Structure prediction request, 633 residues.
Amino acid sequence: MSGGRPRSVELELATPGVDARGRPVRVPLSAATLPEEPDLGGEHLLVNIGPQHPATHGVLRLVVELDGETVIRVIPHIGYLHSGFEKLGEYRHYNQIIPLTDRTDYLSPMANNVCLAMAVEQLMGITITPRCTVLRVIACEMSRIISHLVWLGTTSIDLGAFTPFLWAFQERERIYNLQEQWTGARLTTSLTRVGGMLADIPAGFVEGLREFTRTFPKTLAEIDRVLTRNAVWAGRTQGIGVMTSDEAINYSLSGPMLRASGVAWDLRRDQPYLDYETYDFEVPVGEHGDVFDRYLVRLEECHQSNRILAQALDRLPDGPVNVEDPHVILPPKSRAMSDMEAMIYHFKQVMEGVNAPIGEAYCAIENPKGELGYYFVSDGTAKPVRWRIRPPSFINLAAISKMAEGHLLSDLIAINASVDIVMGEIDR
Amino acid sequence: MNPSAEALRATFGDAIGRVAVARGETTVVVRATRFLDVMRWLKDTPGQIYNYLVDVTAVEYRDRERPLEVVYHLRSLARHANLRIKVEFDPRGDLAIDSVTPLWAGANWLEREVYDMFGVVFAGHPDLRRILMWETYAEGHPLRKDFPLRGRFSRSEQVRQALNANPEAHYSLEELSIAETYGEVPADVRDRLRRGERGLVGGSE
Prediction:
């Protein structure tokens, strides 16, 4: 390679101060140019990262072409966790697909369950009850918080900060305890059913979640204090992996990746579902599209999810959770064992499943990672002809080569972390 | 109905097949010959500006007489409008369609996945390789309806292939050429690499 190529290295790194609006003053974004170096022959190096490497956040493998420490090219290899979920779904009744969705984005299983139930309800034309709607909002926002906390914790470890990881995981544990009370599981939640939920929330759940929403912002403020104005954190993240808003749209990025690039698009606000338009919340939008802005956006989203949770608890209506339709909802076991009609419905649903009308439906929700879409095609039987998952982190990861070009190898780790990938969903 | 469907028919005439509206979603079937023009028109025409490619996938029906569909979900972020575009193929014939990667960079991996899972060939794609399955995967395209759930090969054959995987085979030729280590690998391994035989040692059936 010829000498004198500008490199994106921040030469002078001082502790960022605070500007008049209270925002941290940024390290200059324009890449500093290194002094002319002699051309040392230009032999490129091939470095393999993963699939068994802690900083790849799963079984991701990156083959990197390096010139010195500068990344020339990144060739991602995925598929190590491919389980054929979409194929499996074609052989299952609609309700039997729900356990598969637990295992795609396993950091936010409840939100996946909600999306699946919503997609099938859209296909079948079912309207859920008001209580169920609010419970699903609670499930989605709990998932967003735990997913963002995992992201925050693991990313801070990748970049050398261990303490926020402990704080984040401590808070996450509190949500997991609530989730466990509700669903009986920490990961394989299978929370929803077509037309309703697995179960209503247990006694003490509302109080537990209210206590969480009261104290959680304190931890967020601590994390904010430790990271946002931290010189090392700023230096490792600002100006790294920049995607402009046009590029972000062109690469079909979604979720915090898209919003950090300055595109104010949030499905909860722009294509509302589950009555999200009636909640009071902000959509945080970044301006530089770098790793630092993705961090700011996710941190603020935790605050907003917390607000939504508090509002949902306030408005949680009484009433039934499941729709009153014996063709769709299983009768309680006690009735199925004593009432002839209930037993017949139970038998038919378990053995034959529920037929969906002929047609197709695409249902998308704002998952923690981005736009999760389920696309169902039905030929009128109880099993879908096609179940397509629109995987947000798969599509976000596809931009990693573009983001990492020209950065240092250590920045590749920061960029990869900022995408917030989960391999279960990418490989499916 | 999404007004874009009418505009498409007015602009492209015969190239637009049936238009269906169901559950608030508009689906437009487009002929493969004018497909790329239609997509470019939808992306760039003022008043349309479907600037966001949501998803690319394919659908094959259990009924062998029905066409295999390649499905595109488009969205206009500014207008909050969604549109579904379909191109139909005879599942027994050649599956070839123009790539939209020149229009949306995000289509790159999505099209690779459709190629991997259904065998649809995207003309003009910069890097059409398998993505979820490994590059030398020999059993075909898993999401096709004629592909059995447990795979084409027997379980013992699948295990045998996995155990015989060649450790040198983990880099592609392209990657080895980066490092100039290609010249350093033993001659017989180089031969096998050149033949594209990378998953197996000791010859396969």
In short: Residues 1-16, 28-33 of chain A have pLDDT under 50 and may be disordered. Chain A touches chain B through 52 residues (CB under 8 Å). Strands of chain A lie at 45-49, 61-67, 70-77, 192-193, 196-197, 359-367, 370-378, 386-390. The two ends of chain A are 39 Å apart (CA to CA).
